[in-house]
Each structure stands twice: as structure tokens, then as C-alpha cells.
Amino acid sequence: MTRTSSEHIDTCDIARLLASPVATAFVRIVMSCRGVTEARARQIYLDYINRVGPAGAPSAPD
């Protein structure tokens, strides 16, 4: 069975996601462009993967 984006991601899945070359590039670009920490850039990437909007932003209608 496939997992939906609304379900919780396991810790090993997060590590696997962040280990990819695409994730590494995304994190480095976000750190450079936005001037945020690596931890914040990783959270932005995970939010993007989970399709979570920024804090306080209205969610998209389904």
C-alpha cells in the first residue's frame, strides 16, 4: 500500500530523503538565497516534500 502525504514520515525516511543529491543541493541553495541555517533549510525541504505551506499561510483548497 502506498503512503499518503498526510501521514507521519519515519526518521529513517527523513534521513534517506535528506541524503539525496537533490536534497543537498536544495538545502545549500536555500541557505545561500534565504540566509537561513542548515537545520531550517532542511525543514523547508521536508515541508516542500510534504506540501506544507509556510506558517500562517492559508492552505490550498483540495
In short:
This protein has 62 residues and is an all-alpha fold.
In words, what does this structure look like?
- With 62 residues, the protein is mainly alpha-helical.
- The protein has helices spanning 11-18, 21-34, 38-49.
- The protein is flat.
Question: Approximately how much beta-strand content do the residues carry?
Answer: under 5%
Q: Structural class of the helix and strand makeup?
A: mainly alpha
Describe the main β-sheet briefly.
Answer: none
User: How many E strands?
Assistant: 0
What is the overall pLDDT average? 80
Outline the low-pLDDT stretches. none
Write the layout of secondary structure elements.
Layout: H1 11-18, H2 21-34, H3 38-49
Helix pairs in contact: 2-3
Which features would summarize this protein structure in a list?
62 residues; mainly alpha; flat
